[in-house]
Amino acid sequence: MCVFCKIVNGEIPAKVVYEDDKVMAFHDINPQAPVHILVIPKEHIPTVNDLEEKHKELIGHIFMVIKEIAKEMGIAESGYRVLVNCNRDGGQEIYHLHFHLLGGAPLGPMVCR
Ligand code: 5GP
Ligand code: ZN
After folding, report:
1. Is the pLDDT at 66 greater than 90, yes or no?
2. Are 83 and 110 in contact (CB under 8 A)?
3. Would you tell me how many other CB atoms lie within 10 Å of the CB of residue 99?
4. From CA 65, how far away is CA 19, in angstroms rounded?
5. What is the 3-state secondary structure (H, E, C) of 31-72?
6. Cα-to-centroid distance, 28 and ligand 1 (Å)
7. Which of 14, 23, 69, 103 can bridge 75 by disulfide, Cβ–Cβ 3.0-4.6 Å?
8. How many A from CA of 66 to the centre of ligand 2?
9. Taking all residues of the chain, what is their mean pLDDT, rounded to a whole number?
10. Separation of alpha carbons 7 and 109, rounded Å
């Protein structure tokens, strides 16, 4: 079972900030910004490449959750970045789809290298 599935089923602890029947959000263990939350579907979907038509509503729901968390964290107005890495060149480390929510300070330009 992957690390994030273990967080979903409670085998590994996490600082959870949001949970419902389909989605979970928790603080990244190695934050890259003052606010760094990971928002994940509870379903084990490895990468963006594995998304199917049936996931359209789930992905829309995840963005609504991201919006609410940003507001709760007080970064909605100052701004934030939502990031998804895919596969090797995207720098994906955990192969369970997750959305990084980063903010709380100016993040600088998008950096590719
Ligand atoms: P990726 O590179 O796959 O897009 O990002 C994986 C993220 O998961 C990294 O930012 C990493 O710090 C975070 N991470 C890895 N293992 C754990 C863990 O056990 N708990 C939490 N909360 N975050 C983790
Ligand atoms: Zn998983």
Report:
1. yes
2. no
3. 20
4. 9
5. CCCCEEEEEEECCCCCCHHHCCHHHHHHHHHHHHHHHHHHHH
6. 6
7. 103
8. 19
9. 97
10. 31
Number of C-beta neighbours around residue 3 at 10 A? 15
In the block, tokens 């509503």 appear at: 57
pTM: 0.98
Atom of ligand 1 nearest to the CA of 83: 4
Which domains are assigned to the chain? 3-79+94-103 (3.30.428.10)
Q: Which residues are designated catalytic?
A: 98
Nearest to 34 by CA among 87, 75, 64, 72: 75
Task: Decide if pLDDT at 79 tops 80.
Answer: yes
Q: Which residue has the tokens 């995840």?
A: 62
Q: Which of 3, 99, 97, 101 is nearest to 44 (CA)?
A: 97
Residue ranges around ligand 1 (CB below 6 Å): 3, 12, 14, 26-30, 38, 85, 91-94
